[in-house]
Design a protein that fits this description.
- It comes from Posidoniimonas polymericola.
- The protein is of the alpha+beta class.
- Helices cover about 15% and strands about 35% of the residues.
- It contains twelve helices and 39 strands.
- The chain has an 18-stranded antiparallel sheet that branches.
- Helix 4 runs parallel beside helix 5.
Length: about 650
């Protein structure tokens, strides 16, 4: 019997080694026996290395594992103590919102005590579940970290789906490339999650979880095929330093694993690796929201006479639209200038006199709030993070007294330790004042919405706002996002554009932008991307009487179960998500039309009544046209969906009332 199976089959096991041994290792396996993580100390008491095994195949060869300390080098080059304890985890918990309602956390775990003369006390924690493996560092005494000394030596020559970062100071908005991992050049910074696919399976994604009190991490090409190094975001005011603390716990370094890439979208691994919330968040209400900045209707209103009611009347029209169409929130960002007082005329560059507690009188915010309250619609405000950080508690107390329900906090554009600590302070303060938060200019999610359920969205992705000034947000990009950035969780994508044009006719413009990809493609994004507060970003007039808007208004924003149905990275994706007894299907393709069989083996034997919204123009020439179809589907009949180039489909499957 292999050593890791002995650990997995034992009762809770505490194993301590009093004396160091040569070739020391700790090996733990997932409950299903397929995933194994190995921590080894080498043949001469070092270096410390991590390897990852799936079905007895080594995906990640022994790779360096340790932080790089200021003035001391990388921990783990030499090991004087190697003491471990192992245990099992088996717990269930519910989520207030997410891709699933109930999460089962089943895993093997270990904690290994290590030391190196003259360095801080050091532990490495290991975790192995059916959905992947993870490890993190515990530094138990004061330390300054210069960077991450860890890396990944990937076996088997996989393909990689990745985006390149220009620097650690970024909005994390980029295009993706799907190419051999070996082709990544030396020095290129890579966003996570980074998807890896092997020709005969499996698929894996490298990312991180529970980024709290620590800088975010990215990957970097080394010039050696298949080898990546880890890099931390540096502190902006301390050259050569990434993290400082009396005691530091790193984020989990995570390798998600599945047989197929699309199955990674079912994973709750990042959620399981985060802390449960403190206190009740029953007040948090997911729901759709308007976003008038995207469609541009209000962006010239700063030119109106001070006594004009034109902008106020338009806000009232949007609020009426929300109340009539099951849209929970209306967003107020400004009128081409921020809604709050400042001398700067640029949303992204606040001036020193910015005051986020003082609304400009011409915005008529009290009247907007009063009308929204009358109609049962929540108001959300946009704010730049910097002036907010200077008035955080005062502003949030005031917003609560106004009846504001939440905020979009924008232009963070960093994930260093200081910014991540501010984000946590912001979320904690917002929770005290019953405010939800949507972060733009955001780093990737890391599952922290389990700890802070009032974190209802993160951007950190090139999205449909780019169509206001470029043609970068294409159907191909939408598919890539689903297999890369979306693996980390929340995806705020400026959804809801309802006027598509063929690629040859597209021109970017800020007022009422057009979108690329069919109407059904745009609708499917409400199902495919995890998003408890998706935007309905176009103008009310563009939705009036339009086919498919009934699906948009009825589509849930939070789910009880998620299933991968079909797809290939870079090509197409179909997911099914359940809410109650209804299954919602969504599928998109890249620029190629295709016919896709849909195995629906998750349906009960009696089947379900399906209502489908399908591309009507299969040559892509009329992307706003769709057709509806009603059909009975079940686990034994496999329907085939025809996608237009850049197309998609959505569907709702419900049990026949006679079968219940």
């Amino acid at each position: 019997m292999r050593p890791h199976r002995c650990l997995r089959l034992s009762l809770i096991l505490l194993a301590f080694s009093a004396k160091p041994l040569l070739a020391q290792e700790v090996r733990i396996g997932s409950p299903d026996g397929r995933n194994t993580i190995v921590l080894s100390a080498g043949d001469n008491r070092g270096p410390v290395q991590i390897s990852v095994i799936r079905d007895e195949a080594e995906l990640i060869a022994p790779s360096p594992c340790g932080p790089r300390l200021v003035g001391s080098g990388v921990l783990g080059k030499r090991v004087e103590r190697f003491e471990s304890k192992t245990w099992r985890i088996d717990s269930d918990f519910t989520l207030p919102w997410g891709k699933t309602n109930m999460v089962r956390n089943r895993a093997a775990a270990a904690l290994v005590d290590l030391s190196w003369p003259g360095t801080p006390d050091w532990q490495i924690e290991l975790y192995a579940s059916d959905e992947g493996v993870a490890w993190r560092h515990h530094l138990k005494s004061p330390a300054k970290i210069a960077d991450e000394g860890s890396g990944f030596r990937v076996n088997g020559g996989p393909l990689a789906l990745y985006g390149e970062l220009a620097s650690s100071t970024t909005s994390h908005e980029m295009l993706y490339r799907y190419a051999p991992l070996a082709e990544i050049p030396d020095g290129v910074l890579l966003e996570m999650p980074l998807l890896l696919t092997w020709p005969d399976g499996p698929a894996a994604a490298i990312t991180e979880a529970r980024v709290r009190g620590f800088p975010g991490m990215c990957l970097q090409g080394t010039g050696t095929p298949g080898t990546l190094r880890c890099r931390l975001s540096p502190l902006p005011d301390q050259p050569g330093v990434c993290a400082v603390g009396d005691a530091l716990i790193s984020p989990w370094r995570v390798v998600m694993v599945a047989d197929r890439a699309g199955e990674l979208l079912e994973s709750n691994l990042l959620t399981c690796l985060n802390d449960p919330p403190e206190g009740s968040f029953a007040w948090v209400k997911p729901g759709k929201t308007t976003m008038h900045w995207w469609n541009g209707e209000f962006e010239q209103d700063f030119k109106l006479p001070p006594d004009s009611t034109e902008s106020l009347d338009r806000h009232r029209r949007y609020i009426d639209f929300c109340a009539a169409n099951n849209i929970a929130y209306h967003m107020v960002s400004g009128d081409g200038r921020s809604w709050y007082r400042q001398s700067s005329t640029n949303y992204g560059k606040p001036s020193p006199d910015a005051d986020v507690t003082a609304a400009r009188p011409e915005i008529r915010l009290p009247e907007i709030l009063a009308y929204a309250k009358e109609k049962g619609v929540g108001i959300r405000l946009w704010v730049h993070w910097r002036p907010l950080s200077e008035q955080l508690e005062e502003a949030f107390a005031l917003y609560e007294s106004w009846g504001v329900r939440g905020l979009m906090v924008d232009f963070l554009d960093r994930d260093d330790q200081a910014m991540n600590e501010f984000t946590e302070r912001m979320l904690s303060s917002a929770a005290r004042h019953k405010l939800h938060i949507q972060v733009h200019g955001s780093p990737k999610p890391s599952g922290e919405e389990r700890t802070f359920p009032n974190l209802l969205n993160r951007e950190g992705v090139l999205n449909l706002e780019h169509l206001k000034w470029s043609d970068h947000c294409t159907p191909d990009h939408d598919v890539n996002v689903a297999y890369a950035r979306a693996l980390a969780g929340l995806v705020d994508y400026h959804l809801g554009g309802f006027h598509a044009v063929p690629p040859g006719e597209f021109e970017p413009h800020s007022l009422e932008p057009d979108v690329l990809g069919s109407r059904c493609h745009q609708l499917a994004l409400y199902v495919l991307y995890e998003n408890p507060m998706p935007m309905v970003a176009d103008t009310p007039e563009r939705y009036a009487g339009e086919a498919g808007f009934d699906f948009l208004t009825a589509c849930p924003t939070t789910w009880d179960e998620t299933r991968f149905v079909a797809g290939e990275p870079g090509e197409y994706l179909v997911l099914a998500r359940r809410r109650g007894d209804a299954w919602y299907l969504g599928g998109i393709t890249n620029h190629q039309g295709r016919a896709v069989p849909l195995p629906l083996d998750f349906l009960p034997a009696r089947g379900a009544e399906a209502r489908l919204w399908l591309d009507a123009s299969l040559d892509g020439g009329r992307p706003n046209t769709l057709k509806e179809q009603r059909v009975r589907l079940g686990p034994t009949n496999v329907p085939t969906i025809q996608f237009a180039p850049g197309g998609g489909f959505v569907g709702v499957l419900r049990p026949n009332p006679d079968d219940r």
